[in-house]
């Protein structure tokens, strides 16, 4: 019998008491790993000479102090330590959150045009000063989380400044959603690709999805009517234009009229969207949208389980209607899968989803965590479960974000599940 079937059969019939013990152990493990991840970044990435955090660490732990510094990784560092401080109250996390926030504000933020540069050199001077909507979204996510942690009026001011820029320049008043990229002065660009190898698309799932997540984070703490309306619009864009509700997957690249221009699946983005769409709808507080989001969430999870989920517990990278075509397993997709499976259980009370969460966490422990040096490997190869050592331990996208968020999300959700199981046990 396959491992996940054995685990599922056990979970379906164990008592609530035993399940509570298992979940409590899961919470302890993920929080311990959460602390390990943040310790790694605090110990290894601070750039004492040039400020902020160094831009690259190779898989063998060699540092490249002159590597370029990306705005997205710096925003994610800000978010990660701010969120950790909110959950733990650990002042060391707040100090690192403040360091990251200040570096974003002084080195990446364009104070003349209220945007951000995409890439800087190691001394903090822009090498790519374009306004990419996905980058602005992550900085909003970071600033709004820092505001949640500190109640800083300054952080809220710059959060809303970026929000206003996006609404003024990036929003498509004709077809809804947001265009992909602009110059530093918010002029439209002919070539909207993030990198040279990307699809040249006017609109993408990646940018609009992460902007929804960012706007939800503003509205979580700051109940502004304009933010609420924009958030509701983005949720509807996800539901009506981006998510294929029949397949249970996200379309990725579009022209300005929301016509799809490439049709591959990205299982990591799909599984991440499954729980963050529902989170955004719940933050908004609209009952009908929330119920729709629940149904869509389960549809996406089932699609990923059918086409992208391996028998070893890992979520593969991508594919199509035929199944997985890229069977390697990225670190971030595993973290998002654990959250999404627990979220699916919370929607349905179907314990098969808890079995999947536990199996994926076991996969992460066995193959993805670097138990010698700390942090996680970037990608695990499908054929032999070995890490791809050509990938960075830290880089423009490799950061303490998906995996640290997983720790906090799992801990908070497990607490709620255990509370419900205890209540169910006492009622019986």
Poorly predicted spans: none
Structural class: mainly alpha
Cross-sheet strand order for the largest sheet = 1-4-5
CATH topology of the domain at 68-244 and 259-263: Glycosyltransferase
Largest sheet: 3 strands, antiparallel
Keywords:
428 residues, mainly alpha, Glycosyltransferase, three-stranded antiparallel β-sheet, 13 helices
SSE diagram, text form:
Blueprint: H1 3-13, H2 16-44, E1 69-70, H3 71-88, H4 91-108, E2 109-110, E3 115-116, E4 119-120, E5 126-128, E6 131-132, H5 133-150, H6 153-170, E7 181-182, E8 203-204, H7 205-221, H8 225-242, E9 243-244, E10 249-250, E11 253-254, E12 260-262, E13 265-266, H9 267-284, H10 287-307, E14 318-320, E15 323-326, E16 329-330, H11 331-348, H12 351-368, E17 379-380, H13 402-427
Antiparallel strand pairs: 1-4, 2-3, 4-5, 6-7, 8-11, 9-10, 11-12, 13-14, 14-15, 16-17
């Amino acid at each position: 019998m396959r491992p996940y079937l054995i685990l599922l059969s056990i979970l379906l019939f164990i008592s609530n008491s035993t399940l509570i013990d298992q979940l409590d152990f899961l919470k302890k493990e993920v929080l311990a790993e959460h602390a390990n991840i943040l310790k790694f970044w605090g110990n290894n990435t601070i750039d004492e000479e040039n400020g902020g955090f160094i831009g690259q660490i190779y898989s063998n732990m060699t540092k490249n102090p002159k590597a370029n510094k990306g705005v997205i990784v710096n925003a994610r560092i800000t978010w990660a330590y701010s969120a950790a401080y909110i959950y733990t109250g650990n002042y060391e996390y707040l100090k690192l959150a403040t360091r990251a926030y200040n570096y974003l504000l002084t080195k990446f933020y364009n104070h003349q045009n209220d945007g951000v540069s995409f890439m800087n050199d190691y001394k903090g001077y822009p090498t790519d000063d374009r306004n990419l909507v996905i980058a602005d979204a992550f900085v909003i996510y970071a600033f709004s989380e820092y505001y949640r942690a500190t109640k800083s009026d300054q952080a809220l001011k710059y959060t809303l400044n970026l929000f206003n820029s996006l609404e003024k320049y990036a929003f498509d008043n004709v077809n809804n959603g947001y265009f992909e990229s602009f110059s530093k002065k918010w002029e439209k660009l002919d070539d909207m690709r993030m990198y040279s190898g990307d699809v040249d698309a006017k609109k993408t799932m990646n940018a609009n999805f992460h902007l929804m997540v960012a706007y939800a984070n503003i509205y979580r703490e700051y109940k502004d009517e304009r933010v609420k309306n924009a958030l509701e619009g983005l949720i509807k864009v996800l539901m009506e234009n981006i998510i294929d509700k029949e397949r249970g997957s996200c379309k990725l690249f579009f022209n300005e009229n929301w016509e799809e221009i490439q049709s591959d699946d990205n299982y990591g983005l799909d599984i991440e969207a499954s729980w963050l769409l529902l989170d955004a709808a719940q933050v908004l507080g609209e009952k009908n949208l929330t119920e729709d989001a629940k149904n869509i969430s389960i549809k996406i999870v089932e699609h990923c389980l059918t086409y992208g989920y391996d028998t070893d517990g890992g979520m593969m990278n991508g594919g199509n209607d035929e199944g997985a075509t890229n069977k390697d397993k990225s670190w971030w997709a595993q973290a998002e899968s654990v959250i999404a499976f627990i979220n699916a259980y919370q929607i349905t009370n179907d314990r098969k989803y808890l079995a999947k969460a536990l199996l994926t966490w076991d996969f992460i422990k066995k193959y993805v965590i670097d138990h010698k040096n700390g942090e996680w490997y970037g990608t695990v190869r499908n054929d032999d479960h070995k890490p791809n050592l050509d990938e960075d331990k830290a880089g423009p996208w490799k950061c303490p974000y998906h995996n640290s968020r997983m720790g906090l999300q799992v801990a908070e959700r497990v607490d709620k599940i255990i509370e419900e199981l205890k209540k169910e046990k006492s009622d019986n």
